[in-house]
Design goal:
Layout lengths: L22 E7 H4 L3 H15 L2 E8 L7 H12 L3 E4 L9 H5 L3 E5 L2 E5 L2 E4 L2
Parallel strand pairs: 1-2, 1-3, 3-4
Antiparallel strand pairs: 4-5, 5-6
C-alpha cells in the first residue's frame, strides 16, 4: 500500500525556475580582505562575468557591519532567490560557512571550493 498524503486544493504547487544563469550573492568582508578588498571585489565580478553568474545581491562590510551577519546573508539569499554565495575565501564566512551552506551553495575562489550543506565538494 502506497502512502499518498492529501494536499489542500488551494495549495500552490511549486514550479522549478526556468533554466538560466546561477544566481549569486557576493559576500566580502573588508576586515578579512584588508588592502586587497578592491582586488577581491574585482575578482568576484570577473568570475561572475566569466561564468555568466547573475549577481542578485552584494554584502560588503567588516565584522561590525551586521549584528548577525550570517542571519542577514541567509535572509538575502532566501529573499533574492540566490542559488549560491560567492566569496573570495572560506575565511570571509568563518564559522558561518556551515549555516549559510545549508541554505545556498557557497563558492569560494581561493581555494576554489564549493560547499553544499556543510560539505566541501570539488570545484569543476
Amino acid at each position: 500500500m502506497m502512502f499518498s498524503p492529501a494536499l489542500p486544493a488551494d495549495m500552490p504547487i511549486p514550479t522549478p525556475r526556468e533554466a538560466g544563469p546561477l544566481r549569486v550573492v557576493s559576500f566580502l568582508r573588508t576586515d578579512v580582505s584588508g588592502a586587497a578588498t578592491e582586488l577581491h571585489y574585482q575578482v568576484i565580478h570577473h568570475a561572475c562575468v566569466e561564468r555568466r553568474f547573475e549577481i542578485v545581491g552584494e554584502m560588503i562590510g567588516d565584522a561590525h557591519t551586521w549584528r548577525a551577519p550570517f542571519a542577514a546573508l541567509v535572509t538575502v539569499c532566501t529573499t533574492r532567490g540566490a542559488d549560491a554565495v560567492l566569496t573570495p575565501s572560506p575565511d570571509h564566512l568563518g564559522p558561518g560557512l556551515f549555516t549559510v551552506s545549508a541554505v545556498s551553495a557557497v563558492l569560494t575562489l581561493e581555494p576554489p571550493e564549493i560547499w553544499v550543506r556543510g560539505k566541501r565538494v570539488v570545484w569543476p
